[in-house]
Amino acid sequence: MGDSDRNADRAAAGADFLEWCLSIKADSPPWSVEQSMTQLLAHESAEGFAPSLAAAARDDAEVIHELGRRPTPTAVAALRAFQAMSTIDTQRDLARINADRLVRQGLPEPPWAATIGRVRVDGCWWAHDEVDETAIVLCAFSYDGEDPHGILALIDRAIEGGLLRELTLGTDPDLLLRVLRQAGDGDDGLMVEPLDPARARQLLEDAVATTDELIEDRQYKPTPVPAAYRKMRALTLARARALSDSVAPPPALPGSVELELLKRAFLDSDAARALPAHDATSRAVDLLVAHITQQAGCHPLRLGPRRILALLGLPALAPEHLDDPDVARVLPDVADAWVSWAAAERGLSADATARLGHAARQGRDQLGSAAGEARETP
């Protein structure tokens, strides 16, 4: 049996299983169908094993094509479920086209087809820290007051795009909101505020994209990863799409002109007054800002403790990798001064400023120690 035959058999088996599952859900409310479909799209075994996301997407595409060839009511139902829940735009369109064609041939729609996914957004909130390294996002939904539910996501914003650390689905949004507010009452300095739905969509979609990329990379296995991530992934993205027709753009990185103005303002500031007034200092600032924007992927003013430590731990900033020994000597002090200046420019609280300063001193000590070792090496 060739690969094409095996693929066809696998697609047929997948379509059979989807039709069977949707036959059981024939008279179920849309919320029940969505909960089943998000688990099916996970392609995850009871033991937690799953194919790569790319392989799962290929399998789903073949199943959609196979369902489109089946003139049965359950095939229409399965296609409508794919249309509502697939994580890939083209697959949702393909499922819709195939379902529409079967309906035009006289096959009935499932009773939930007109309402699945058409949820009401009952509110969005988030808890976040001053330095933008932690975000806890809560979005609440219902079907016009029925089947209320909420998605609570803990996003590690120290990683570019955001990494999902926890992902919770609850059927009592009020309870989830109390949990969120309790997080704001803790000692972590989190602020709880209403969140614009378009911004919530951007935060969730970016975090899913980053998490997908990292968990699929065999060289990087983020810990912890939400245990139910694969099973909640399709539902999370479907609800993100329901939040807003458009996605709020992420905060833009400054352009070249703005970067030059920032660097000039820093060099003219009190924070830089103690730095040596020579070209090596300016070159060190250029190097630091370039790595903040290009490697850390964040605005040069929006540094948090973990970003600072990660940035100053980059091999490219180690003295042995710098061609200019004068830059290597002054870089630790430049980094310390930049962090202090950035905190003042942002108007951070004394506590947040202290945490940034502590991280900067740790990073400076690492760079300084490495610089000393480099100077002692014959």
Please trace the helix and strand order, writing H or E for each element: HHHHHEEEEHEHHHHHHH
Radius of gyration: 26 Å
Overall pLDDT = 90
Number of DSSP-assigned strands: 5
- Unreliable spans: 374-378
Overall body shape: elongated
Strand content: 5-15%
Number of helices: 13
Helicity range: 55-70%
| Oligomer kind | single chain
Instruction: Provide the number of structural domains.
Output: 3
Structural class: alpha+beta
Order of strands across the widest beta sheet?
A: 4-3-2-1-5
Tell me the distance between the termini.
Answer: 66 Å
Biggest β-sheet: count, sense, barrel? Answer: 5 strands, antiparallel
Provide a quick synopsis of the model.
With 378 residues, the chain is of the alpha+beta class.
Can you characterise this structure?
- 56% of the residues lie in helices and 11% in strands.
- With 378 residues, it is an alpha+beta fold.
- The protein folds into 3 domains: 3-104, no CATH class; 120-243, no CATH class; 256-376.
- The protein has a 5-stranded antiparallel β-sheet with strand order 4-3-2-1-5, sandwiched between helices.
- Strand 2 and strand 3 form a beta hairpin.
- Helix 1 crosses helix 3 (53-68) and helix 4 (73-85) packs antiparallel against helix 5.
- The radius of gyration is 26 Å and the shape is elongated.
- Residues 374-378 have low confidence and may be disordered.
